Amino acid sequence: MNFYLNKFGFQSPSISLQPNSELEICVVIPCFNETALIDSLTSLLKCDPIKTAVEVIVVINSGVKHSNEIREQNRLTYDEAVAWIEQNNRTNFQFHILLEESLPKKHAGVGLARKIGMDEAVNRFDILDRDGIIVCFDADSLCDENYMTEIEKHFNKFPKSPGCSIHYEHPVGGEEYEDAIYKGIINYELHLRYYNQGLVYAGLPFAYHKVGSSMAVRSSAYQKQGGMNKRKAGEDFYFIHKIIALGGFTELKSTRVIPSPRISDRVPFGTGKAIGDWIESENLVFNTYGFESFQILKAFVDCVPAFMNESIEKLPINLNESQKQLLFGFLSTQKFEEALVEIIKNSKRESAFIKRFFRWFDAFKVLKFMHYLRDNGISNQPVLSESIKLLHKIGCAQQLENELDQLLFIRELEKK
Questions:
Q1: Is the dihedral of CA 400, 405, 411, 415 positive or negative?
Q2: In angstroms, rounded to a whole number, what is the distance separating the alpha carbons of residues 183 and 99?
Q3: pTM for this predicted structure
């Protein structure tokens, strides 16, 4: 067993079958209380063939705290998947199903399930002495048929990239779900893309989507950063930023993951929870961070290079007095001046200073910043109005008067 698995592995690898000598991509799927796993497996199997080989590792999981009903559903899903695999396994496209029924109460959840599967992938590649690609997917997601070929091409094109986010699009219409769910997911995805484009507008170096079903990493990068965390929710957000910190992170825009928009109580926040809350509240307005917060963020980020030689109080920051008070108030809570002294002390060049600065002012602090401004004067506003403000600032001259039109516009913008 390699160093990473010895030090950070949750358990010993379970898959004993020798991997295909051409294995290059392992897709990992956590599966909990799921009824539609076969749809996801079928979508992956329908992908255009790649030049090498693929394995899909499914971790059907529950914890000691979970009900007998959930365990029973997991066993039904397991039996169904095993039968499906017997009919569909191929030499160059193999499926493995792990059934984990007694994960510890403290950690049982999606983070640990992803970790178990991703650690298995590390071991598969380690057997072959290969730095393969570990892809994260979900048990209720679908994908385009060029999904595998585009992942293969992407990492060949960017051999030094430690990982990438993959373009995603929730379904926004059809007959599978009720209209309220489609309306909810349009608003929620617009919120996600509005936030990401707000980070782009502000000039932050880590403006990437962080969706658990839509990311991929090299095995070496995964190991170098200590692997997946055991968080029960938000594991994707925390994990992907460890990979982004390595530098050279990329975006794969030429294919698509199609996550489910359905209501779910599997995790305490995220898509399923947001849609459930939307339906339950019967709220006609979906709120998000006020655009003014991104304007304050941008004014702060624009000054970062100057912080190496000048204090923030002496810089002509393009903000009014109330906005400055909000910014300075937040920085005080984060002990900004002490952090800045340490950053300057360890930076000989401006490029090193900026890199080290954004290690401190990372995605987690940015989220704290947005929450601080929300709680201290810049209240949440309808996503429709705030997205219009952002699109106007970034030069969109089109009249996009509803959430769906805005969402479709930003999707296309992010694929360029």
A1: negative
A2: 35
A3: 0.93
